[in-house]
Design a protein that fits this description.
Length: 689
């Protein structure tokens, strides 16, 4: 959800030292009341807003509206109204006036038939609604309308802005993978246009999404690039945002004191110029960090400041709740064993977050607080009710995060080792069969020469002997096929058994043990024992996550239940989060009916080829295509990387594994280097029907 701001007059002297603002003000003194003056006023207002001087930005935009009317420049007037609504989206202090501005702007945009401005009205209204939980569905619909308008107008800049807003919505829902995809789309458009003003927001937001998935390298890279642009544009808002992200990294590393020190600096920055919504958030996080440091008096002080500052900001309708402070109160009173005081705070927060997908993390926290409070108050029925609800929400959240954090992996090391042993035994058996065939054929040829010399009757014996040999070979081949099928069934059963045991037994026991540790009363423990208790809880959470990831990788459920096509779709979604190479998937109905051994072999081949691209190709884009043609199922994996020598590539272990799998399926493959560069591997296997 967005952070709220409040209007406050800032003296002109406070911004006189900004060189960009000074330059724009000097330029205004030389301009007549025409369209150029309107554009300059709009740019000046934007720089005021970036620097935190919102009241000056609003005054400048209103002046721009008056000049635009005098100059009969409707586009300038519409843009000023849109900017005023955008600033209000960060406040919620007067949404009714902002809505009226947007209504007028839309009618004016329709009158001059400007599709891009119509789309901007939809976008600004979506931003206004994104902080009001009851209007979130309408906000999503408005973003889709805005995107359609910008595409119709061929306005790539505002199309990228819409993807940015859609990503923010997805982040609020906890859908980090989809958010990252939207921001990457926006980033590509903005980099192609060299749109630094838009990149200044996209890069830090993208880094924040990576941070949610603990992808620290990608997050820091985005923050570094964003900081360069913020310094170049002298954007105070982005600079302060990046400081908060550095504090978040420290908090994730359990360096609470260092993180709190950064937030104390941020408080000073938000006090002058006074930015109440950001200040309220900083107070709330300082309270949370104080709880982690067991400094409950300070935590209570900061949380009250957060709540008071926030409530002075939002309009009387109170259409939003400050969850930083609300959640802190419950945690503080739990730690102080004032369980009766926990319940009203937790219930109020629960009412606000109920049935709102974007608020699942907060809702889960309130449910945990209620379960623990009622347990301590000896009300087991209520404690059990909220605990079951908490577990359902927590498991859902954990499953979503586990899927998003999944990497390309098919098996554990031990299981892969067993497969390699089985393949080696199978290869040895095939080698013995071929040796037997060669020996028998050699003996037959020698015997044939002798028999030809001796008599024609002996020739008939040779034919009979060869026929019997072919029957034996066919018999051996059938037995080999039966062994291979049994081996596959055994592997599948073993995967399912191990995955089920891990998920249903070990994971459940670890979860129960973690709950018992969380329920322990640590108030009487020494500080070092409390820290050890906290570390044990963290380790238990990591163990639980690892067990769930291993159980999913042992037997990909989507491959078993939905077939090859669904598994490839999920694979490309995962690859596009974890790697720099962008993977595209082209499928038709071919993969829907592919299950069992064929699906597993082709999926394993896809993983092998994908790993080759990630390790060796240095490609920016790659594609996976799956379709039927002429009685064959064809799988094509192609990239735009540095290319390989088709003759040398077949000698690698990976390609030999692929060839071995295709031999079992009766298929073939071909490696080529397209004219445009890169590598193309085409695989085909015969398919009935």
């Amino acid at each position: 959800m967005r952070h709220l701001l409040v209007l406050l007059f800032i003296s002109p002297w406070a911004v006189a030292q900004n060189p960009v603002i000074d330059s724009l003000k000097n330029r205004l003194n030389q301009l007549r009341p025409d369209s150029l003056r309107v554009l300059t006023l709009h740019e000046l207002a934007t720089n005021y807003w970036w620097s935190g001087y919102d009241s000056l930005a609003i005054q400048t935009l209103r002046q721009g509206m008056r000049v635009a009317k005098q100059a009969h420049y409707p586009t300038g007037e519409i843009r000023a109204r849109l900017a005023l609504a955008r600033i209000e989206a960060d406040y919620l202090s007067d949404t009714r006036t902002a809505s009226a501005q947007l209504d007028t702007a839309y009618n004016q945009a329709v009158a001059i038939r400007d599709l891009s401005l119509q789309g901007q009205v939809f976008l600004r209204r979506a931003q206004l609604y994104s902080n009001i939980m009851s209007k979130l569905p309408e906000a999503r619909s408005l973003l889709q309308k805005a995107l359609a308008k910008f595409r119709e107008a061929h306005d790539r800049r505002w199309e990228a802005q819409t993807y940015n807003e859609m990503a923010i919505m997805k982040m609020g829902e906890g859908q980090y993978v989809e958010a990252i995809n939207h921001w990457l789309t926006a980033r590509r458009i903005q980099e192609n246009m060299n749109d630094l003003k838009s990149l200044r927001a996209t890069l830090p937001n993208l880094g924040a999404a990576y941070l949610k998935l603990n992808r620290y390298d990608e997050a820091i890279a985005c923050f570094t690039e964003g900081e360069k642009i913020a310094n170049q544009l002298n954007d105070r808002m982005v600079k302060l945002f990046l400081i908060s992200k550095k504090a978040e990294v420290l908090e994730k590393k359990k360096e609470y004191a260092a993180a709190l020190a950064l937030y104390l600096d941020l408080m000073k920055a938000y006090e002058n110029p006074y930015t109440p919504s950001q200040l309220a958030r900083a107070y709330g996080i300082a309270g949370r960090l104080s709880i982690a440091l067991h400094q409950y008096d300070k935590a209570l002080h900061y949380s009250r400041l957060s709540q008071d500052t926030y409530r002075k900001t939002v309009e009387k309708s109170q259409e939003a709740l400050e969850h930083n402070a609300q959640y802190n109160f419950g945690e503080i009173y739990l730690a102080l064993k004032q369980y009766n005081r926990v319940i009203p705070y937790a219930k109020t927060g629960l009412d606000w977050t109920k049935n709102v997908a974007e608020m699942r993390p907060e809702r889960t926290g309130y449910l945990r607080q209620l379960a623990m409070a009622y347990d301590q108050l000896n009300q087991p029925a209520k404690a059990l009710y909220y605990f079951k609800w908490y577990k359902a929400e927590a498991d859902t959240m954990l499953n979503e995060e586990a899927i998003q954090k999944a990497t390309v992996a098919s098996m554990t090391y031990d299981f892969e080792k067993k497969q390699q042993v089985a393949r080696l035994q199978q290869a040895q058996q095939q080698s013995r069969i071929k040796t037997l065939e060669n020996d028998q054929l050699a003996q037959s040829r020698n015997f044939l020469i002798v028999l030809l010399i001796l008599s024609g009757g002996t020739l008939g014996y040779v034919f009979w002997s060869n026929r019997r040999l072919r029957v034996k070979n066919d018999e051996l081949a059938r037995k080999n096929a039966d062994i291979e099928a049994a081996l596959y069934r055994g592997q599948t059963m073993e995967r399912k058994r191990v995955a089920t045991e891990l998920h249903d037994s070990v994971a459940a026991k670890v979860s129960a043990l973690k709950w018992r540790l969380e329920a322990m009363d640590t108030s009487r423990l020494a500080d070092d024992q409390q820290r050890e208790h906290t570390r044990l809880l963290d380790h238990m959470g990591e163990v639980y996550d690892d067990i769930r990831a291993i159980s999913h990788n042992l037997m990909p459920e989507i491959l078993e239940k939905q077939g090859l096509q669904a598994a490839l779709i999920k694979l490309t979604d995962t690859l596009n989060v974890q790697n720099r190479t962008r993977f595209l998937l082209e499928v038709d109905e071919s993969g829907e009916a592919v299950y069992g051994k064929t699906a597993h072999e082709l999926y394993a081949i896809s993983l092998e080829l994908v790993n080759n691209i990630l390790k060796h190709a240095n490609a920016r884009r790659a594609g996976i295509a799956l379709h039927r043609q002429g009685g064959f199922l064809k799988l094509t994996v192609q990239d735009d990387g540095q290319g390989i020598n088709p003759k040398k590539s077949s000698n690698g272990i990976g390609m030999r594994n692929i060839q071995s799998r295709l031999e079992r399926l009766g298929g073939t493959y071909l490696i080529s280097n397209p004219e445009l560069g890169g590598t193309c591997v085409a695989v085909q296997i015969p398919m009935a029907g």
